[in-house]
Amino acid sequence: MRYPIAIEPGDKKHAFGVVVPDLPGCFSAGDTLDEAMDNAREAIELWLETVIDDGGAVPEHGSITEHQANPEYKGWVWAVVDIDLADLSDKAERINITLPARVLRRIDAAAKAAGESRSGFIARQALRA
């Protein structure tokens, strides 16, 4: 999914501001243009994860031309951030991993204490990290 972003030019005293017009409330900033674009990707991914976690639909993107017509963004620079929605999928995948037996025993004990499956425990710990 390719989301247009509007970038408010920065200077030595002000960061570059970024707004994602298709995702209400999704914004970011950066001290450099490159940093602003990297931070925009992170903001978009977090915004979409929240919508997906809440059971909402992923919004379609509009065109840059359509958004440029909005006077609110006059003088702003435009770019596109490509988001791979597969990275945000909650579809379960079977994997095969190899762990030392003592590590597996510790994982199983911690999962049991938490009332979770091994897979659920590992997933929760990974998301936490």
Compact description:
By secondary structure, the protein is an alpha+beta fold. It has helices at 33-53, 64-68, 101-114, 118-128; strands spanning 2-8, 16-19, 27-30, 77-82.
- Number of structural units classed as domains: 2
- Helix share bin: 25-40%
- What count of helical segments does DSSP give? 4
User: Roughly how many Å is the radius of gyration?
Assistant: 20 Å
Task: Give the N-terminus to C-terminus distance in angstroms.
Answer: 26 Å
The average pLDDT is 91
Strand content: 15-25%
Q: pLDDT under 50 segments (min length 5)?
A: none
**CATH class (first level) name of the largest domain:** Alpha Beta
Question: How would you characterize the overall build of this protein?
Answer:
The protein has 129 residues and is of the alpha+beta class. The chain has 2 domains: 87 residues, Double Stranded RNA Binding Domain (2-Layer Sandwich), CATH 3.30.160.250; 38 residues. The chain contains 4 helices and 4 strands, in the order βββααβαα. It has a 4-stranded antiparallel sheet. It starts with a strand and ends with a helix. The relative contact order is 0.16.
Protein topology:
Elements: E1 2-8, E2 16-19, E3 27-30, H1 33-53, H2 64-68, E4 77-82, H3 101-114, H4 118-128
Antiparallel strand pairs: 1-2, 1-4, 2-3
Helix pairs in contact: 3-4
